[in-house]
Amino acid sequence: MSPAEILERATSEGVLLALAPSGSISAKGDPSAIDRWFPAIRQSKAAIIAELQLERRRAKVLGMLRDNPGSRYAIDVADASTDPIVVAIATRDVATFELNIPQLYYDAFGLLELIEKHTGDRHADT
After folding, report:
1. pLDDT (tens digit, 9 = 90+) per residue, 9-54?
2. What whole-number distance in Å separates Cα of residue 87 and Cα of residue 98?
3. H or E segment and range at residue 19
4. Which of 21, 45, 90, 119 is the most interior residue, by most CB within 10 Å?
5. Structural domain boundaries of the chain?
6. 56: number of CA atoms within 13 Å, CB side?
7. How many other C-beta atoms are found inside a 10 Å radius of the C-beta of residue 52?
């Protein structure tokens, strides 16, 4: 079962999984349901944490677009000192995605220029 499936199924059974401030997983809900899901959560812990972090970054860039109606895109760099550098990007009414850029090749201004160039009012079908 994929991390996304675990999150979806556990939620449907009343178990809310979230990132704890420590970076681990926090589980809230019916104790018996949490106990049923504990083995699957433990087995896929790292992948579930990665999925929750992805959801958090996606929500953050979508929130940035929501809070700034005139913006065509939103970018979030969680930590520019990591390798690879994880960049979350949302383009209004088009897509959200992440890039894992090796630190050696990361150029913030080049990335901004590229995104600006390709988030105009019209999108070419090339």
Report:
1. 999 999 999 999 998 999 999 999 999 999 999 999 999 999 999 9
2. 5
3. strand 15-19
4. 90
5. 1-43, 61-126
6. 15
7. 19
- From CA 53, how far away is CA 88, in angstroms rounded? 11
The reported pTM is: 0.80
In this prediction, residue 119 has a pLDDT band, given cuts at 50, 70 and 90, of: confident
DSSP annotation of 126 = -
pLDDT at 55 exceeding the cut of 70: yes
Which residue, 48, 45, 106, 112, is CA-closest to 75?
Answer: 112
Q: Which residues contact 106 (CB under 8 A, 6 or more apart)?
A: 80, 85
Position 126 scores a pLDDT of 45
The runs of H, that is alpha helices, within 1-126 are 3-12, 31-43, 45-67, 108-117
Beta strand pairing call for 95-101 and 85-91: antiparallel
Region 73-94 average pLDDT: 92
Taking alpha carbons only, the member of 109, 111, 122 closest to residue 89 is 111
Q: How confident is the model at residue 120 (pLDDT cuts 50, 70, 90)?
A: low
CB–CB of 65/93 below 8 Å? no
